[in-house]
Design a protein that fits this description.
The protein has 371 residues and is an alpha+beta fold. Helix content is 25%, strand content 26%. The longest helix is centred in the N-terminal third of the chain and has 15 residues, at 19-33. The protein has three domains: 1-70, Helix Hairpins; 109-140 and 206-252, HSP40/DNAj peptide-binding domain, CATH 2.60.260.20; 254-370, Urease metallochaperone UreE, N-terminal domain (HSP40/DNAj peptide-binding domain, Sandwich). A four-stranded mixed beta sheet has the order 10-11-15-14. It has a three-stranded mixed beta sheet with strand order 1-9-8. Helix 2 (19-33) packs antiparallel against helix 3 (43-57). The protein has nine helices and 15 strands.
Length: 371
């Protein structure tokens, strides 16, 4: 077993430190190493070490014995510590949050939140949608109104823990009398005992139900967005409020449009003649078809913007834009007449077609032969 560190060293204070300084040091270190905050592998061990040091140094009698005998005095029970981690947790929450005791097991408790994933079409995300969904959730039993007791009866206060949900176990050890607190084994920490259970919920106070909920999807919602529906989660306990329902939106892709924020993107094919000579073409948008003037000499990859033809802004006024990308399509099956015309155009421009040029591979072969 590893040798225990000096308690003053653990808390980082001097042997002459006053009680207030010791308490201040403990609060700081307890926050730092609390297992709910610090996820390091050794956090719980350090937390217990800090708690043990404070238990001794904060008690005048134990501190005096520790100052005289160190860790080995058998007449000043409690130096060894480490056996009341659960109790220490409660003490720390009391110190941090100003509580005067442990959490009341009979206090109202908020219900759990739920999550539901809804998949919608591209245009439904753009323009919004209303839909009914059905979710399974836990609700208060209508027969016993959430008490878990048979109608006409009510839960009784636990005679072991007297409603606190905690019971104390006293042990006499060579180092003194030790008191440990643990969850009451009689009422399982509820503070109440149900002698006659409700036959509908079997004493749980809760039942599973299928709940139909009307959902309004706002216009402009995007993939991955979450909608919060207050109070549509699982029912609370002992009169506590219900949790919330979070709806995660998944948007299907569109065969023609793509979306980036509030803007819409699409591609339109143009022939060589349309791009070279210019044209007036019809473009589909999310709501209608519009005419777009293509100027002569347009190059492939050119973008045109249609203002206000994008997605309605979810938290604003107006809409995004639609961006149209031009892609020049090269014909693959030309007639002899079409080939002839293209040769004439190339000739007028002073260009040589591949038909008049030596193939690349032929020229490579000649280079190797030394021709």
């Amino acid at each position: 077993m590893a040798e225990k560190r000096d308690y003053y060293e653990v808390l980082g204070v001097s042997k002459s430190a006053p009680d207030e300084e010791i308490k201040k040091a403990y609060r700081k270190l307890a926050r730092q190493y609390h297992p709910d905050v610090n996820k390091a592998d050794d956090a719980e061990t350090k937390f217990k070490e800090v708690k043990e040091a404070y238990d001794v140094l904060s008690d005048g009698q134990k501190r005096a014995g520790y100052d005289q005998y160190g860790h080995v005095d058998p007449n000043q029970g409690g130096f060894s510590g480490g056996g009341d981690f659960g109790g220490g947790m409660g003490d720390i929450f009391d110190m941090f949050f100003g509580g005067g005791g442990r959490r009341d097991p009979n206090a109202p408790q908020r219900g759990n939140d739920l999550q539901y994933t809804m998949t919608i079409e591209f245009k439904e995300a753009v323009f919004g949608k209303e839909n009914d969904i059905t979710i399974p959730r836990t609700e208060n039993c209508d027969t016993c109104h959430g008490s878990g007791a048979k109608p006409g009866t009510k839960p009784q206060t636990c005679h072991v823990c007297h409603g606190s949900g905690q019971e104390e176990v006293v042990q006499n050890t060579p180092f003194g009398r030790m008191v440990n607190r643990r969850t009451c084994s009689t009422c399982s920490g509820n503070g109440k005992i149900i002698k006659e259970r409700c036959t509908t919920c079997q004493g749980q106070g809760k039942v599973k139900k299928q709940r139909k909920i009307h959902v309004k999807i706002p216009a402009g919602v995007d993939d991955g967005a979450q909608l919060r529906m207050t109070g549509e989660g699982e029912g609370g306990v002992r009169g506590g409020p219900s949790g919330d329902l979070y709806i995660v939106i998944r948007v299907k892709s569109h065969e023609f449009f793509e979306r980036e924020g509030d803007d819409i993107y699409c591609e339109i094919p143009l022939t060589f003649a349309q791009a070279a000579l210019g044209d007036d073409v019809e473009i589909p948008t999310l709501t209608e078809k519009v005419r777009l003037k293509i100027p002569a000499g347009t190059q492939t990859g050119t973008f045109f913007r249609l203002r206000g033809k994008g997605v309605p802004r979810l938290r604003g006024i107006g809409q995004g834009d639609q961006h149209v990308k031009v892609v020049i399509v090269t014909p693959s099956n030309l007639s002899d007449e079409q080939k002839d015309l293209l040769r004439q155009i190339a000739s007028l421009d002073g260009e040589k077609t591949h038909e008049h040029e030596q193939s690349f591979f032929d020229r490579v072969k000649k280079a190797f032969r030394g021709d």
